[in-house]
Write a structure and sequence with these properties.
629 residues; alpha/beta; Rossmann fold; 28 helices; binds 4-(N,N-dimethylamino)cinnamoyl-COA
């Protein structure tokens, strides 16, 4: 499903921000408000946000103009008729949202996909106002949408896989970090976020601590700059109150707004943040809130609303917490987390999810993966999935990557691999923080380096070809890893380089060797010795990448290439890969001898018989990948 034109219904605080991010993704953006006055106000908000970006040096005047040129305003819903995607971002009113979708359904072309930015209603309920529920999903942005990278991408039971994939790839192309969420009340993040602030206010109801003590204790426990009371003062009491009411209606009493929250809402005032912090009461506050957040997060995972990794990402990226609930549980120990939940279970029987009890019984911490392996037919997708650190290669990532490669090696059905990164980076290098900590111990840093070198060798010696789909920064160890792949396709926005000398180190995962072999001594020297980054086009010009494509085409291009490789004779492909790689270590005569040995082996395969016979019979071959006898 191709996306060129995106409609945004509503240009208020959220809608204007959403329209701006959509335009920043390069999509033609048509934003609609019912009156010219509202539209002008919304467009002015976008214009001034873009202007502030230039003033602060975060963007250039040229880029501002480029983004602005993508945006067009209208008061006529009919102007959205030809949009490929329409995002609704009007007020949180169920009937108003349904009316918008019913109207869009009448107006838009049959293939238009719809998404709602609702935070309180079920997406399925809104989708039911249309005759195309299979083309409706949720795109839940976080405030402020231009800056906050988190995007909950929500599928209902009816959302077609292609529509969901389209929403996910749209989210990525517009610079967001999507997390995959099943349609359910509060989705993934609000479910534990609302429980978090509501419980903080219940502590006040119960007289456990005063407001400043609670705010300070929560900031310390969750690694935050702003506690729940201060946050509610900034974001609005009505919003906090209505969100809790909405979850009470859909989930139950656990979310009933705390007494003081209701009173504050009714009085129209803000929290009084003054007073003395009582250090003796901080632990009780921290224990209660940690227990609530961890229990609810485990319930979200148990219900299959989101994975443990995505729940944590929701907390760290969307809410800017230092750690997500599952990482917090791993740090404190799962038994302790379970013990802290005892009093909540007493007050709300059934609070503790079975999933948590089972995990405790297993004696293992939660598994939080930084590398995802997905096998789709003959193609394995390995995705570096640590976007909060630009996919930096720490030892945990390297171990997981090694494991994923071993699984691919053992899977004869996999014929090609695509390796890419989640978020803004392919891989921004080895993990500088981990290296700094290890560097004082020579044995430890050597072990780390050997692990990295081993993973790169695993890529090279894998029988299946590996395509690096370079979606963003490929720096230091990240570029070294890309150079170990067989083929490199780069997005036009990618940046490549070896910044090591600027850190007081030198490339340590083969950069000086592989870059020189690929691009020659002059190019490698300029890159390594200056530490400067180059763009994708320059990288292609000097031979570091095979080709450059527009960002929306990156994964499709890599996939087409992988599919072509996968359609060829697997043993011939694997042995050709090995022979090409042998040129890195063998002089020509030995290389030719190596090639002769490999091609003789390939001659003895059943796939050679099949391939040649298929040519003679004028039919497509059917390869099995059977090794020579
Ligand atoms: N390691 C750890 N964290 C990283 C990282 C890295 N390589 N790159 C980015 N991050 C983290 C940032 O710290 C930040 O996290 P918080 O501090 O917020 O927690 C988060 O990712 C987002 O990054 P920024 O806020 O910096 O994002 P920007 O868009 O502003 O900047 C950037 C993007 C890519 C320009 C910038 O992040 C950057 O300069 N990153 C470092 C790039 C770099 O220098 N890469 C080369 C790493 S050195 C050896 C073994 C191995 C190696 C060498 C020797 N042996 C011992 C012999 C390998 C060396 C390397 O790869």
């Amino acid at each position: 499903m191709d996306i060129k034109t995106v409609g945004v219904v509503g240009c208020g605080l959220m809608g204007s921000g959403i329209a701006q991010t959509v335009a920043e993704g390069g999509f033609t953006t048509i934003v609609r408000e019912p009156t010219q006055e509202l539209l002008d106000k919304g467009l002015e908000r976008i214009r001034s946000f873009l202007a502030k970006g230039v003033d602060k040096g975060k963007t250039t005047p040229a880029r501002r103009d480029e983004v602005w040129a993508c945006i067009r305003g209208t008061t006529d819903m009919a102007d959205l008729a030809d949009c490929d995607l329409v995002i609704e971002a009007i007020v949180e009113n169920r009937d108003a949202k349904k009316a918008v979708f019913a109207e869009l359904d009448r107006i838009c072309k049959p293939s238009t996909v719809f998404a709602t930015n609702t935070s309180s209603f079920r997406v399925a309920e809104i989708a039911a106002a249309t005759k195309r529920p299979h083309l409706v999903g949720g795109l839940h942005y976080f405030y402020p949408p231009v800056i906050n990278k988190l995007l909950e991408v929500i599928r209902t039971n009816d959302t077609a896989p292609e529509a969901f994939e389209m929403l996910l790839s749209f989210g990525r192309l517009s610079g967001k970090l999507p997390i995959l969420v099943r349609d359910s009340p509060g989705f993934a993040v609000n479910r534990f976020f609302i429980a978090w602030y509501n419980e903080a206010i219940r502590l006040l109801d119960e007289g456990v601590a005063n407001i400043p003590t609670i705010d300070v204790a929560v900031c310390e426990a969750f690694g935050l700059g702003m506690g729940p009371y201060k946050l509610i003062n900034v974001s609005g009491v009505p919003l906090a109150y209505h969100a809790a009411v909405s979850l009470t209606e859909s989930i139950g009493d656990f979310y009933r707004p705390a007494r003081h929250l209701r009173q504050l809402y009714e009085s129209g005032q803000l929290w009084d943040l003054s007073g003395e912090v009582d250090p003796a009461r901080k632990q009780a506050v921290a224990d209660r809130l940690l227990a609530v957040v961890c229990g609810v997060a485990a319930r979200v995972a148990e219900e299959g609303v989101a994975t443990v990794e995505d729940v944590d990402r929701g907390a760290t990226i969307g809410l800017r917490w230092a750690k997500g609930p599952f990482a917090i549980m791993n740090d404190m120990g799962l038994e302790r987390a379970l013990a802290l939940m005892g009093p909540i279970e007493d007050a709300h029987p059934g609070f503790i999810p079975d999933l948590l009890r089972q995990q405790v019984a297993s004696g293992q911490p939660w598994t939080l993966r930084h590398v995802r392996l997905a096998i789709d037919g003959a193609i394995a997708h390995i995705t570096m999935s640590r976007p909060e650190a630009l996919n930096a290669l720490g030892s945990k990532v390297l171990h997981e990557l090694k494991d994923a490669l071993a699984q691919v090696r053992a899977n004869r059905a996999v014929r090609a691999v695509i390796l890419s990164g989640e978020g803004d980076a392919f891989i921004a290098g080895a993990d500088i923080k981990e290296m700094q900590a290890l560097a004082a111990r020579p044995a430890a840093i050597r072990e780390f380096t050997e692990l990295g070198l081993g993973v790169l060798r695993d890529i090279e010696t894998l029988p299946q070809p590996v395509i690096a789909a370079i979606n963003g920064f490929a720096l230091g160890g990240g570029l070294e890893l890309a150079l170990a792949c067989d083929i490199r396709i780069a997005s036009s926005t990618a940046r490549l380089g070896f910044p090591e000398v600027g850190l007081g180190i030198m490339p340590g995962l083969g950069g000086t060797q592989r870059a020189t072999r690929l691009a020659g001594r002059g190019v490698a020297s300029e890159l390594v010795l200056t530490g400067d980054l180059i763009g994708a086009e320059e990288a292609a010009r000097v031979g570091l990448v095979n080709r450059v494509v527009a960002p929306p085409q990156l994964m499709a291009t890599a996939r087409r290439l992988a599919d072509r490789i996968a359609s060829r004779a697997p043993v011939a492909v694997a042995k050709s890969k090995a022979a090409i790689l042998a040129t890195q270590r063998l002089p020509l005569d030995e290389g030719l001898a190596f090639e002769l040995d490999r091609s003789s082996e390939v001659m003895a395969t059943p796939d050679r018989v099949e391939g040649m016979q298929a040519f003679i019979d004028k039919r497509p071959p059917v390869f099995t990948g059977t090794e020579p006898q």
